[in-house]
Design a protein that fits this description.
This protein is an all-alpha fold. The protein is built from 2 helices and no strands. Residues 8-35 form a coiled coil.
């Protein structure tokens, strides 16, 4: 295995971790909206929900 292969594997692993984290934040934001959907946090939480769903559906 070359250095490039090792680096690519590490980068792919990190990308997957970040994707999973974004999806998790989307789920947390969705839960928070169900608890209280008022206030200035609403727009922020809506954005996190949308981003999490998009990451889950497309991986982007």
């Amino acid at each position: 295995m070359t250095v490039t292969d090792t680096l690519n594997r590490q980068l792919n692993t990190r990308v997957k971790e970040l994707q999973d984290e974004i999806e998790a934040w989307g789920r947390k934001a969705e839960w928070a909206l169900q608890q209280d959907d008022t206030g200035w946090w609403y727009d922020v939480l809506q954005g996190l929900v949308k981003r999490g769903k998009r990451m889950n559906e497309t991986g982007l």
